[in-house]
Model the fold of this input.
Amino acid sequence: MKKFILYILVVLSVIGVWAYPYLSDLRDQGLTLDIAYDYFFSGPDKPFDPKDAVNQLDYSKNASWAALPFMEDEADLFPKGEETIDQTQAEVDVFFVHPTGYLKGDHWTDPLEENSATKENTQWMMVNQASVFNGCCSIYAPHYRQASIYSYFGSDELREEVHAFVYQDVKTAFKYFIEKFSNGRPFILASHSQGTHHSIRLLAEEIDDSDLYSRLVGAYIIGGTISKDWLNQMKDIGVCDSSKQLGCLVHWDTMNVTHINKEMPIYVGNICVNPITWKNEGSLSDLVDAKGAVYVSGDFALEFSGSDEPKNMVFNDLESPKTQYVQAQCKGGALFASDQSGTRFQSFAGSAGNYHGLDYALFYMDIRENAKLKVKTYLNNLK
Done:
């Protein structure tokens, strides 16, 4: 027992040394000892085994999708004062792969419970991320046996094993989308965070150097780091460097500008496209060019332990855009955006200047208008 207590004290000491530079930031985010304990010690207590996962979803069923153009869902919501289209009549589709919403440590992959906080988190992603495309396109977003947040804190081998398993769901859903839904229409691939980790495999294995590439309007593969070395392996797909460029990808990882001069090795060699200028370079955007940040609708269930009971979240139309609100600049592979300290957006920011949770919100209207422009450009080129 004494050895066990000593072990725990050593682990806590190591965590404390790691976290010390960020303590003020973490306190600002509402970190408590209970939350920290849950976060570090509540993961699955056995190795990953695919046999423990629930069965793969049947993508011929509407219930296997978080968003469909002929189904009423949260991806239909939009900012006040803006317009949406009839998604059933859209000429371009979006295949959207959502980020991590399963934060529990009971399983390595989402058990896909019908009534759960995890499912409500997916609905949050639909209204606050996927909906950015309902001004131009029909939206298809699959549910999938997403990896638990704890897969990111195990060994590299464990993470790769879990994510390789999960990717098969995304791949199956994408193939069903192409074969049964798209009817040969052009499409956009979009994602965030964990969804981005799966989407880069779709780009490499299913779209690049294939007949599908000619139908790719563009890829908004946001959050989660993508190395330039990975992109250099592509035969067709490159990084975008202008607002109208087609068949390319955009990517950024947002940080607080107050950290712009700090060393961040994780982003070295990372792709960064500025979502205000749409340039793959480092000049600071002009405030007048920022088309609008949009504050989120609803709450995200950020709980790492306890039951996955639903919180009975209600999602409404998004607020009016805040135009000319933010400036941004790429540097060292990261996108540095205006400081949100003291604003409502800060509640969805991470610790140590990380704005991962704001990758879409701060640039919502910039993405929305750019997607419209790319679609218009693509369709005009067909005439």
